[in-house]
């Protein structure tokens, strides 16, 4: 009887030891997975950072076929050409209804800071929505009263590579409608957006 009790205790001890070992192994695997994910996320952020720095430095090379005859619409559905809106050096913040709106939302404070620096008359917010009223409804509550906000038909720039990347971006143009200073904001790298805002000028 005593031997059976000893055997039972021994087996129970082994089971407890096995359970505890499995728990710590699972815990270690979980911690390793979390660490690996953090490393991967950090690596991806660094890669994205390098990419966006490249865009920041070499944005003049991006082909964006804008022209003075492109029609855009205001909140009252009145249409006008870009030539009538862009009469001096202007920064254009472009986004579409298919973009990640969190990315758009995160960049709006930088748009406002840049506008405060260069003057609102030199800032154009250009949304690309199938129904223009949806653009203006979307931007309500962001303190953009008094800004130049217009909607552009999604088909107009549909063949542009940067538009097909499906990301919001900002660029500089002028009366000759050349495109320069192209920058693609990344919500996880606000320091790059801050740098762009700081170094941008007319």
Could you characterize the architecture of this molecule?
This protein has 202 residues and is an alpha/beta fold. The protein has 2 domains: 1-59; 62-199, 3-Layer(aba) Sandwich (Glutaredoxin). It has helices at 2-58, 82-85, 101-118, 132-138, 161-164, 190-199; strands at residues 71-73, 79-81, 90-96, 123-128, 148-152, 169-173, 180-183. The chain has a 7-stranded mixed sheet. A hairpin with a 5-residue loop joins β1 (71-73) and β2 (79-81). The termini are far apart. This is AhpC/TSA family protein.
Tell me the layout of helices and strands:
Blueprint (H helix, E strand, L loop, with lengths): L1 H57 L12 E3 L5 E3 H4 L4 E7 L4 H18 L4 E6 L3 H7 L9 E5 L8 H4 L4 E5 L6 E4 L6 H10 L3
Parallel strand pairs: 3-4, 4-5
Antiparallel strand pairs: 1-2, 1-5, 3-6, 6-7
Helix pairs in contact: 3-6
Class per helix and strand makeup: alpha/beta
CATH architecture of the largest domain: 3-Layer(aba) Sandwich
CATH topology group of the largest domain: Glutaredoxin
Instruction: Identify the overall geometry.
Output: globular
- CATH superfamily membership of the largest domain: Glutaredoxin
Q: C-alpha Rg, in Å?
A: 27 Å
The number of domains? 2
Note the main sheet.
7 strands, mixed
CATH class bucket of the largest domain: Alpha Beta
Helicity, in percent? 40-55%
Q: What is the percentage of strand-forming residues? A: 15-25%
The whole-number mean of residue pLDDT values reads 80
Strand order of the largest sheet: 2-1-5-4-3-6-7
Assembly state of the chains shown: single chain
Runs in which pLDDT lies below 50 for 5 or more consecutive residues are 2-12, 17-21, 23-42
Number of strands: 7
Distance between the termini: 94 Å
Could you spell the SSE succession in H and E letters? HEEHEHEHEHEEH
């Amino acid at each position: 009887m005593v031997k059976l009790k000893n055997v039972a205790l021994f087996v129970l001890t082994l089971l407890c030891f096995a359970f505890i070992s499995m728990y710590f192994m699972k815990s270690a695997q979980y911690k390793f997975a979390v660490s690996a994910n953090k490393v991967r996320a950090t690596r991806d952020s660094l890669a994205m950072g390098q990419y966006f720095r490249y865009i920041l430095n070499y944005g003049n090379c991006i082909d964006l076929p804008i022209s003075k005859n492109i029609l855009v619409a205001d909140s009252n559905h009145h249409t006008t050409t870009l030539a009538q809106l862009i009469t001096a050096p202007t920064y254009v913040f472009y986004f579409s209804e298919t973009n990640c709106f969190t990315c758009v939302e995160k960049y709006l404070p930088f748009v406002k800071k840049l506008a405060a620096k260069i003057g609102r008359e030199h800032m154009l917010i250009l949304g690309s929505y199938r129904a223009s009223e949806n653009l203006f409804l979307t931007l309500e509550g962001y303190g953009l009263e008094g800004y130049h906000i217009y909607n552009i038909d999604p088909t107009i720039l549909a063949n542009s590579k940067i538009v097909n990347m499906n990301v919001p971006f900002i660029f500089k143009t002028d009366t000759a409608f050349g495109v320069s200073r192209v920058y693609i904001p990344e919500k996880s790298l606000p320091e790059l957006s801050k740098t762009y805002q700081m170094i941008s000028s007319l």
